[in-house]
């Protein structure tokens, strides 16, 4: 697979003493008893649906879930939308696929962040797009570097993937103005912005959009767990009907049972309770990790500024090599992941991505104290 198209990750059956892969959540803290009740209620609903006649459902999704999503977005992200504006998808990846299918023609230019999210790059390339890898700085995507003829711009403004910095408000406004001038569609992937630990939330691109240019993509993979395969997109008005049609043409609709259970979970307040519990747990893990990186590992690592999410990137100081650190860590049964593969071109940073979503405070302390004993011998 071409550079920058695949996420570096060990096989699913790999067993390490400590594994800090990104995008992992902690199912041990999920309220399974509550979820079981929601599923049982959904089963009863499914039994009654259609008066006993089995039929296909609305491609946009079940009304209860779409209503739950629209209320949640209005409260947490200032994204004001009707429930009919929400299209339920099989994770964020299908949301990106649907937007790509209705916007991109083969040969169109799609701008992506550099470094950036490999599955999105691979998807747009598979649709025949020409990828323009636009560098980021400490304020996010550098708008001045966007190609003039880009048809679509894909960004992760709440928590840039993988480096972690949020896009500044000034840069968000600049990007929206650029898209309006050039008639481009912006895809805002807000994959784990729910977990914010510092400062006030920055307005989402969707909430600032007055020209109908932003497709807002969200997922339950980071708030609940990835194997649920549930996501959503709130498209611009001009794309709502084409997306609905594309969803119907692709798989007609997502699982009714899961949608109904999740809709109940959201509307009865359990989703918000779960987010509060997880925010508290992840905040403790993040604090423990940053403390170790700046204290016992301070000579080798510098955490990059990241105010949200369930992973962070730690830059390596001069004298240490990313590949050497990853290999030595793996030999010591520690999984940390270099950021080099997230670059399509020459990497401009040396560092590792550290996910703390699935690791307890005890695991973080054990893993990084073990890593600290290795680092002096790896310095060149």
UniProtKB/TrEMBL annotation:
InterPro entries on file: Aminotransferase_I/II_large, HTH_trans_reg/aminotransferase, PyrdxlP-dep_Trfase, PyrdxlP-dep_Trfase_major
Gene3D superfamilies: Type I PLP-dependent aspartate aminotransferase-like (Major domain) (3.40.640.10)
PANTHER family reported for this sequence: HTH-TYPE TRANSCRIPTIONAL REGULATORY PROTEIN GABR
Protein's recorded name: GntR family transcriptional regulator
Taxonomic source organism: Caballeronia telluris
Domain Aminotransferase class I/classII large: 44-336
Molecular function via GO: pyridoxal phosphate binding
Pfam families: Aminotran_1_2
UniProt superkingdom: Bacteria
């Amino acid at each position: 697979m071409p550079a920058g198209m695949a996420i570096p990750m060990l096989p699913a059956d790999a067993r390490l003493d400590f594994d800090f892969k990104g995008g992992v959540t902690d199912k041990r803290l999920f309220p399974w008893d509550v979820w079981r009740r929601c599923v049982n209620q959904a089963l009863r609903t499914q039994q009654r649906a259609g008066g006993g006649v089995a039929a296909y459902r609305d491609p946009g999704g079940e009304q209860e879930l779409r209503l739950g999503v629209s209320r949640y977005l209005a409260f947490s992200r200032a994204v004001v939308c009707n429930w009919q504006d929400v299209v339920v998808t099989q994770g964020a990846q299908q949301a990106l696929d649907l937007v790509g299918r209705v916007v991109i023609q083969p040969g169109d230019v799609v701008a992506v962040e550099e470094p950036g999210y490999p599955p999105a790059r691979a998807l747009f390339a598979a649709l025949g797009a020409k990828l323009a890898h636009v560098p980021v700085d400490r304020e996010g995507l550098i708008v001045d570097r966007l190609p003039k003829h880009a048809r679509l711009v894909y960004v992760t403004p709440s928590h840039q993937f993988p480096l972690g910095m949020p896009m500044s408000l000034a840069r968000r406004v600049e990007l929206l103005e650029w898209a309006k001038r050039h008639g481009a569609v912006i895809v805002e992937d807000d994959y784990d912005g729910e977990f914010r630990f510092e400062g006030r939330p920055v307005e989402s691109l969707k909430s600032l959009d007055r020209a109908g240019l932003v497709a807002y993509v969200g997922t339950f993979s980071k708030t609940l767990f990835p194997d649920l395969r549930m996501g959503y997109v709130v498209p611009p008005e001009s794309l709502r009907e084409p997306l609905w049609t594309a969803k119907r043409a692709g798989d007609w609709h997502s699982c009714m049972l899961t949608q109904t259970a999740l809709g109940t979970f959201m509307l009865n307040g359990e989703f918000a309770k779960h987010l509060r519990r997880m925010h508290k747990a992840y905040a403790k893990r993040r604090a423990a990790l940053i403390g170790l990186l700046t204290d016992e590992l301070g000579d080798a690592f510098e955490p990059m500024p990241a105010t949200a999410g369930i992973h962070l990137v730690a830059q390596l100081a001069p004298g240490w090599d990313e590949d050497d650190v990853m290999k030595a860590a793996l030999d010591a049964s520690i999984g940390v992941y270099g950021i080099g593969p997230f670059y399509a071109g020459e990497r401009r940073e040396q560092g590792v991505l550290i996910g703390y979503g699935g690791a307890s405070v005890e695991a973080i302390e054990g893993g990084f104290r073990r890593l600290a004993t290795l680092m002096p011998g790896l310095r060149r």
